[in-house]
Amino acid sequence: MKHLLTTIVAVSVLLPALASANPATLNHPGRLLASNCFQCHGTDGYGMEHLAGERASEISGELMEMQFEPARQDIMAVHAQAYTAEEINLIADYFSKQPK
Ligand code: HEC
């Protein structure tokens, strides 16, 4: 009985989470890095300054621009300055693969 209850609780908690994740990008190597952006830009980029479905070159271009603006010390620029070019490309590719 205890196992049955545990299973029911586990399934009811996990299923909605799985259903809302985009299965096509679940194993994308940029997903974990991109999750650092979710708190402000929304899960998978569906929020403020909508990133989901944007062209990867546009997202990475903007982040790299921010890296070379040392005078900019706002939250977004400081965030961008913490990533390598390779990491930025992975993050940008991840968001570009989300349906618009
Ligand atoms: C603490 C909140 C916060 C986090 C975390 C954050 N951002 Fe932002 N981001 C903002 C805000 C606020 C703006 C709009 C103001 C600006 O451009 O600085 C913005 C703007 C942007 C823009 C420019 C959008 C446009 O059309 O001008 C891009 C691209 C972007 N963020 C990507 C990212 C990515 C990728 C990450 C994760 C690596 C990230 N952001 C993490 C707050 C955040």
Automatic annotation (TrEMBL):
One MF term in the entry's GO annotations: heme binding
Domain Cytochrome c: 17-99
Signal peptide: 1-21
Presence of the UniProt keyword Signal in the record: yes
Superkingdom as given in the UniProt entry: Bacteria
SUPFAM superfamilies registered for this protein in UniProt: Cytochrome c (SSF46626)
InterPro entries (alphabetical): Cyt_c-like_dom, Cyt_c-like_dom_sf
Protein name (record): Cytochrome c class I
Keyword set, alphabetical order: Heme, Iron, Metal-binding, Signal
Species per Swiss-Prot/TrEMBL record: Thiothrix fructosivorans
